[in-house]
Amino acid sequence: MRRSVSFAVLSAVGLLGMSALTAPRRDLAADAAQKAESAEVKIDNFSFGPATLTVPAGTTVTWTNRDDIPHTVTSSDDPRVFKSKVLDTDEKFSFTFTKAGTYPYFCSIHPKMTAKVIVQ
Amino acid sequence: MSLKTTSQEALPGANQSQLAYDHNRDGVDRRGFLKCMAWAGTGAFCVIRGGVLRSYSMSRLAEMDPKARAKEMMGELSFAQISDSHMGFNKAANPDVAGTLKAAVDKINGLAVAPEFLLHTGDISHLSKPEEFDTVDQILKDAKPKEVFYVPGEHDVLNDNGQQFLERYGKGSKGAGWYSFDKKGVHFIGLVNVVNLKAGGLGTLGPEQLEWLEDDVKQLKHSTPLVVFAHIPLWSVYPEWGWGTDDSAQALSYLKKFGSVTVLNGHIHQTMQKVEGNVTFHTAASTAFPQPAPGKADSPGPMKVPAEQLKSVLGITDVNFIRGKQALGLVDSTLE
């Protein structure tokens, strides 16, 4: 199941969930959405590049598989924070990191392929 | 048990902790390497006697007197191993994986001694798509041997943790698809080491399967020849590329009491053999595309070879069991 929080979802929360959110938190969410930070990770030669990606909270990270072999982007945490479907050549997967923390992940087909995203 | 790669060919009495037969010699440039691969593609006939593996290149077999060759291929039980058909793969390394699988079937059908059955050691499909499995099933219907035994590769269990594989091929199997059967006094064990892989790890059998294996072999006589087959090598071919199985040592410890154990794997898309004590390890070539020798490229991705060389690096393995000698003869044959 994809748990990424898109711009649209954030907006919906902003509009519909007013009573549930305090004003400052809503502003923060809106700020993050407005900035629409994005970052990319390339999968090349059975490795994620960069192996460590550091981004601010709210960033949407997009992985692109540039190998001739399928890979996945799978959170190593239990429970998993994110898991892509299998990505064939040139297919992409995106996930938006809303909370600070370190997110290790790997390719569940080739588990020697490991990397992490650090969200500040 | 680390793999020590040497360039020596299999020789009787070769140091058993070393790779007894290395098709992909070290210390060569890419051109030299491709030449080696083409040479490897000529295949090998291997026979184990008293735990020592002997192998003959197919080109040498081809030069042999037909009567002598026929004698080498005769036995009470023979079967063919195919592997890594990767149906659905369509990149430059081989745009026609259906064609090369058909060529493998033709090769099997043309063998002087018809194998009694086929073993497919996984990566039947490339992306676990139903139509990919369907295509392989259709092509294998043309093979003379009508019985096919499968174990899954990691490409066969994508997205559903192997549910589809089990529905198609796992009838009567346990857990993620492991099982055993007997043919003419030889005990065959199909293992699954491609599900629930852990970050940073290698292939995994898991405690449930290990427990089953220990129990499965408990009642067997020690003189029973064993053939164990699984997708990812059950020996450390090259852990840096994930070519090994984390808990294979425990599995092999249950097989120590047996006089003759042969382990057949796929996954690495090249033939390699090693003898260690009572166990002979053997990996089969892919019917789809070759992969580089351990450490000889930036990654284990598909290797592009000139079109005219492709069939020389793909192949099938014909295994011939000779009763009484407790020996398994392995014939690696390419698609040319």
What secondary-structure arrangement, pairings included, does this model have?
The complex is a heterodimer of chains A (120) and B (336).
Chain A: H1 7-16, H2 23-35, E1 38-44, E2 47-49, E3 52-55, E4 59-65, E5 74-75, E6 92-97, E7 101-106, E8 114-119
Parallel strand pairs in A: 1-4, 3-8
Antiparallel strand pairs in A: 1-2, 4-6, 5-7, 7-8
Helix pairs in contact in A: 1-2
Chain B: H1 30-40, E1 44-49, E2 52-57, H2 58-63, H3 66-73, E3 77-82, H4 97-109, E4 117-120, H5 130-140, E5 148-150, H6 163-169, E6 179-183, E7 186-190, H7 207-218, E8 226-230, H8 248-253, E9 261-265, E10 272-276, E11 279-283, H9 307-310, E12 315-322, E13 327-334
Parallel strand pairs in B: 3-4, 4-5, 7-8, 8-9, 9-11
Antiparallel strand pairs in B: 1-2, 1-13, 3-12, 6-7, 10-11, 12-13
Commentary on this structure:
- The complex is a heterodimer of chains A (120) and B (336).
- With 120 residues, chain A is α/β, with parallel strands linked by helices.
- Chain A is built from 2 helices and 8 strands, in the order ααββββββββ.
- The radius of gyration of chain A is 15 Å and the shape is globular.
- Mean pLDDT of chain A is 82; it is low at 1-24.
- Chain B has helices at residues 30-40, 58-63, 66-73, 97-109, 130-140, 163-169, 207-218, 248-253, 307-310; strands at 44-49, 52-57, 77-82, 117-120, 148-150, 179-183, 186-190, 226-230, 261-265, 272-276, 279-283, 315-322, 327-334.
- In chain B, strand 12 and strand 13 (327-334) form a beta hairpin.
- In chain B, helix 4 (97-109) packs parallel to helix 5.
- The longest helix of chain B is centred in the N-terminal third of the chain and has 13 residues, at 97-109.
- Residues 1-59 and 323-327 of chain B have low confidence and may be disordered.
- Classes of the chains: A alpha/beta (120), B alpha/beta (336).
